[in-house]
Amino acid sequence: MTYVLTVHCTSKRGIVAAVSGFLAEQECNITDASQFDDAETGSFFARISFVPETGTGLDALREGFGPIGEAFGMQWGIHDTADRMKVLIMVSNFGHCLNDLLYRWRIGALPIEIVGVVSNHMTYQKVVVNHDLPFHHIKVTKNNKPEAEAQLLQVVEDSGAELVVLARYMQILSDSLCQKMSGRIINIHHSFLPSFKGANPYRQAFERGVKLIGATSHYVTAELDEGPIIEQDTIRVTHAQSPDDYVSLGRDVESQVLARAVHAHIHRRAFLNGDKTVVFPASPGTYASERMG
Questions:
Q1: For 11, phi and psi rounded to 5 degrees?
Q2: Which pLDDT tens digit goes with each residue over 135-179?
Q3: Catalytic residue flag (residue 225)
């Protein structure tokens, strides 16, 4: 078994020594470790993978680490890597990201437990049901948004979803929902933010003659498309390509970027750091699956 310890706190002398000392006392072998000290915010972040060589259980480790976490004012957690995070996917009428996530999940490249798919349309009901997954149709209009959002929250609660992935879900979530689920909703934006925001970014990019187009995955906040960025990527285009080519190429990038962002979150490599994120590299053994595309 392999466990992961995540730490976020104010930077102080002795944190690394305390953490490594505790793990050594518990006869745990550290197999991978990443840390970052943000000089601008004074925050410290760490992610440590370790193996309890004498079989120390999760509950005992959590209880033992409690005093250290309290002493340093940490936000911390110890997690079993064998436990798959429960994920709820939301989609509207563009299915490329949904299909990509379902494929990666089906072949084991994205080790999650998909607890359902929510859509404001019926377009992908058959696709979802054919994967033996629950499909929830929640129609959204300008007159029923509070009721629709209440239904969504009920689905989240009933399913035990730990993460919500907006796989090209084209409805704006309320400020209260964004705050309630801060750090637990990931979106894919069909543009390399912060450029070309708004309607039809690929047309804007085409009209400007850009040579690179891209996609951005970020945590959702009350500020539309302004959430902390987790993952981005670009692809080169030329003057000879059409707007339709831009869309086709852009969809490929969107799918890969969203999958990488979800991968980072479920493996607890992504940390909120104010308006930004700290994203540690993948641990050994997981990089290949993350880069599939």
A1: -65, 125
A2: 999 999 989 999 999 999 999 999 999 999 999 999 999 999 999
A3: yes
pLDDT tens figures, 180-206: 999 999 999 987 766 666 677 777 777
Scanning 131-242, the segments in alpha helix (DSSP H) are 145-159, 175-180, 201-208
DSSP state of 281: P
What is the value of pTM for the model shown?
0.91
Q: In whole angstroms, what is the distance from residue 235 CA to residue 74 CA?
A: 39
Give the helix/strand (H/E) hosting 28. strand 28-38
| DSSP sequence for 53-121 | TT---HHHHHHHHHHHHHHTT-EEEEEETTSPEEEEEEE-S--HHHHHHHHHHHHTSS-EEEEEEEESS
Placement of tokens 């852009």 in the chain: 250
d(CA 254, CA 234): 9
Q: Tell me which residue has tokens 């000290």.
A: 37
Of 32, 38, 225, 252, catalytic: 225
Cβ neighbors of 169 (< 8 A, separation 6 or more) are 90, 91, 92, 118, 119, 120, 187
